[in-house]
Predict the structure.
Amino acid sequence: MDPEQIKKMVEEDYQKKLELARTEESYYPGKLQEFGLKNIDRFVKYNPNPSNYMKFGITFGHKDLEVVAEAMANNEPWAVVSGLNPSSPLHLGHKAVFDELLWFQEQGGADIFIPITNDETYVVGKSESLANARKMAYENIIPSIIAMGFNPEKTHIYVDSDYTEIYNVAMDISRKLTLNKLFGVFGWDHKEPTENPGKVFYMGAVQLAQILLPQYPEFGGPKPTIIPVGIDQHPYILLARDIAEKKGFIPPAEVNWKFLAGLDGKGKMSSSRDGSAIFLTDTPEIAEKKLKKAYTGGSISGDYQKEHGGIPEICPVYGIRMYHFEKDKNLESACKTGKLLCGACKQEAITQVKDWLADHQRKLPDAKKRIDDFLLKTPIRSIFE
Ligand code: SF4
């Protein structure tokens, strides 16, 4: 290829990545505006100990975080709810959410509820059977969560199909909802979700039961509750707030997350795209191979990158390092000024990820023995009174 052609190709590739970064940068502020949510900056400025996720703008928005902050400051009870569906082992995107939950737990007072939604996994078709999703929960996901260091006295994990109390709570909540409201909030078109009534029941009632469960009398009654969510899950919080008011509960608050990019550069890290995710069960060697192949925000020419810098906003390697390992924002400037090139940056990421995985996996056998200490078993009887 002649040098002029190569120069043109390098420039076009860089411009394409810059354009992607601009779209990425405007997406989240646009969503805050659309949904009437607040930027996290003010909370970071006035809170003496914000999480790194908040400081780095990874947790970028919120609604009513002040209500939870007040409970934290006054040593009053508050709760955090964050669940996931067990369609695959946890990956680094999930780990970030659990790290933030740990930060919440360290602020004192918080009871953390972690529903593992194998019913959802099954009804939306992500698992061939409820049994498979249940097995994934107990053999893989729950031990990984425990190994991250949660306090068993303040952490309540449950698998939906085993903690069937949640379905009674869902029935209680369903009386406060209408199908029209559900369809409106989720933007459903009266076709796709009605093919599967289980999906409507799950999304319309069980999910909301999980969000509101900490406010039932069995857990001490109404209290500030915070839900860390991706911006796409905001409709659940809207619905939950509406029902909370009807039940005399405190409308749940939310903090909003930016998704961790997948290694393939094609959207968020996800178990459904091959090569997109690093799973917490990947051997360090597999993780290394995946990182070596990862897409980056760098240029296809090292000289060009030295001159123009990289584009960290769209770089999954940058995401992994900032979400999980960096303590300050120096990486951003090293990348943007071209002082750091992708080869060296990836090598550092490989070391960080391999060390973390090896340490995490060493803790799993012990975590497996402690599952029962974390399982929620509280009967919910107040709804029958
Ligand atoms: Fe990404 Fe690192 Fe390359 Fe910057 S130097 S684009 S952060 S891999």
